[in-house]
């Protein structure tokens, strides 16, 4: 039987504001437990929340970047539930009046454009953290410690429509969302640290059916890999059940990365009644056109627009422009590198190739590209070296380890280390003549038409020049000296 | 001296007839002596009171000018946070709890160097009309210690009525300042919602709670309001209105003012005795050139039901933080997290609080929300509109503050609905967010009764002006010898 997969994602993006959603405490990650707390975020009796306007700005930013409608009347509601990581015993969230509605994001799946619709984006506060002692979970623990540093750190919850059709699509959509959050500079988008989280609602139905199947909610997806893996596991589990004639139970399932399996957390019957109602301690926020337009003006150029521009303005292949815009800094470093040296006749494509090589070096060595302050300058210098044939592109790869994360000028570096290609025809000529003299046999072979031997002779030349011979030039001169050109 | 009003006491300090320390000590001594009978205080804060008094005396010694009410002692309801001072809401669940911060109004009173004499008894979490729900036992009405002082701010009313403090602070969610003021024969004001910061007031029902003063005279309340009011960025519902001097209209003539009497509050719910009393009172005031007209505020008949949906709903959520995890009472008999929370709350809260939490959770449950909470909010809007219309024609709205004078403990505890009915006059005002005052107007059955005046939003000055003139006409005097005789 042919099954259709239906997935909706609820993404939680932590915002990197200086202070928390409703108090002045620092929203920083990783500080000593219970140091960023105050009477308000620990819910002392009598305290009141005061909204951090920066969070509204961030929400509007993301809403505009994901083609949402921004609601003019915004209201916060209380979501009531008891748990030690929630000191008020309610979470201040948005319920029926979220800040953003009805947007979408485009993703590329197998070279095809797919539109993922976004139902809503709303603002809410994060919970604190429980550290269970003597066990991984609360039921087996001797006791549990509560860290309220994270309590009331601002979050945006982004809810997609159930239009995602595969685990891969889910991962790509999630990656795209992270890319935009990072471009907007409103969040870290770091799944491992928990600043980007997601729950997946998964169901399947017979292809052609209109009615949705019973869904399950999969939680604890802490990396892009687990998003894909867990959803695929859940799809397989549901198909197995239905094909065996069983029925899917509506429930919440917990993904365990170590065992690569999901287990039931609670069924629909055990679900909370959160008793939402508008928070009487907060007044509705009115977002007028002026506010929206002010934010719109602050929006950076987004990846899709930059990609188009790179293709149109610089004639870059789509693949290059997509890779260059994967993060904002790389796109900027590429463009600055090119602009700073375009008078020296370097081409956008050369610059793009060097920039990608440069960035790949950071990726494959797990280095933090965001801290690479001299990237644009060095990419420009390296492109110049390639363009002028001062070094070969393989030389670039070998000098990157020495220069990244330093303020070395690559041009100076190559000079200092004597890495410039030997392009001096006089010097090259005498070297090639020596090689011919030392290898009379192979020389004769080439003369008699055995062209494969040129490779051997080039090897000898490179050995003598310690790899610095300009390969094109050396090849040409060798042929001339052997009288075969 | 302890029976003088705040203004008179302030003048005595200013004129160096008495030092702030002597005055504070006099009130502390009297409070300690009488508290055994009246049970008006949960805690007497002698040390901080004396420290503040000393600051005032130092100021006097260096010739600095005093601002009004510097050195005048004040008692604070036990639901307002004072840093490092036990604040319990008269609940077992907060026994021993010391807040790590000061409420905004405490900062203001400290800045004004007003010695804080103590924390006053109240109904548990301000839920009640008699102080009978207090974990620390009922307070006694100094006019007749066999009756209740009203509630929930009963202790604060008793403190002023019995000379334990010339001024006190209460909170009013459905009448919790005005009703005990009426029962105890003193002045109590509930300002417009948003006038006084709620930051540091332990929440009962956030959209209804408002802090306000008790005093012996309208003038004293006006001066105290000048100290308490003002925008506070820490309270998002605090209103950013221009500061004004609430004493400005105190001497304005009230000849020709138009006063509305809503039928819905002046009807069969009053006993014949009480009705006759107020009829005669209104007659007397009509002779002073005040124009009385009966009006209809049709939505008011739904006020009580509306209140008993909205207030418990908000309370059920506000009181969820008392879970035994971080502070307050934690049950010793628990073996799991759920048990710890459940037992701490079951053992820590009293019956009335539990009743309201249950009602609140019920009306907010999915499936019932629209029928109850949402509908109640809609009725609330109608009530506001009814009042708004009335204030297009009338200066103030008048009614008795309570349907009866003070009752006896136990009289109404068996039937919670009957207790709730006691607040029928005061509740609509909170739903509409309006300012209202109760001033003593006379005696029924040898117990004081109050007159409630309700003003338009932010028209406290006008309300206080009219009240001050009425106070002069009514000539009500606290019977101090009577009170001391009782003790």
A few lines on this structure:
Chain A contains 15 helices and 16 strands.
State the CATH superfamily name of the domain at 6-184 and 192-252 and 468-486 in chain B: Amidase signature (AS) domain
Could you name the ranges of chain B where pLDDT drops below 50 across 5 or more consecutive residues?
none
Chain pair with largest interface = A-B, 31 and 44 residues
Put simply, the count of helices of chain A is 15
Structural class of chain A: alpha+beta
Mean pLDDT of chain B: 93
Tally of DSSP β-strands of chain A: 16
Tell me what portion of residues of chain A adopts beta-strand conformation. Answer: 15-25%
- Topology-level CATH name of the domain at 6-184 and 192-252 and 468-486 in chain B: Amidase signature (AS) enzymes
Regarding quaternary structure, what we see is heterodimer
In the sheet with the most strands of chain A, the strands line up as 2-6-7-10-1-11-12-13-14
Radius of gyration of chain A: 30 Å
In total, the number of strands of chain B is: 11
Shape field of chain A:
elongated
Give the biggest beta sheet of chain A. 9 strands, mixed
Give the total of domains of chain A: 3
Question: Beta-strand percentage of chain B?
Answer: 5-15%
Give the CATH architecture of the domain at 6-184 and 192-252 and 468-486 in chain B: Alpha-Beta Complex
The residue ranges of chain A in which pLDDT falls below 50 over 5 or more consecutive positions are: none
What's the CATH first level of the domain at 6-184 and 192-252 and 468-486 in chain B?
Alpha Beta
List keywords for this structure.
heterodimer, A: 485 residues, alpha+beta, Arc Repressor Mutant, subunit A, 9-stranded mixed β-sheet, 3-stranded antiparallel β-sheet, 15 helices, 16 strands, 39% helix, elongated, B: 487 residues, alpha/beta, Amidase signature (AS) enzymes, 11-stranded mixed β-sheet, 16 helices, globular
Structure description:
The complex is a heterodimer of chains A (about 475) and B (about 475). Chain A is α+β, with helices and mostly antiparallel strands and about 475 residues long. Chain A has 15 helices and 16 strands. In chain A, the strands form 4 sheets. Chain A has a 9-stranded mixed β-sheet. Chain A has a 3-stranded antiparallel β-sheet with strand order 5-4-15, with no helix packed on it. In chain A, helix 3 (about 225-245) links the parallel strand 12 (about 215-220) and strand 13 (about 250-255). The model of chain A has no long low-confidence stretch (mean pLDDT about 85). Chain B is an alpha/beta fold. Chain B has a domain at about 5-185 and about 190-250 and about 470-485: Amidase signature (AS) domain (Amidase signature (AS) enzymes, Alpha-Beta Complex), CATH 3.90.1300. In chain B, about 40% of the residues lie in helices and about 15% in strands. Chain B has helices spanning about 5-15, 20-40, 45-60, 105-110, 155-160, 180-185, 220-230, 270-285, 305-320, 335-350, 350-365, 370-390, 415-420, 425-430, 460-475, 480-485, and strands spanning about 40-45, 75, 115-120, 165-170, 185-190, 210-215, 260, 290-295, 395-400, 435-445, 445-455. In chain B, helix 2 (about 20-40) runs antiparallel to helix 3. The model of chain B has no long low-confidence stretch (mean pLDDT about 95). The interface of A and B includes residues 87, 89, 138, 276 and 283 of A.
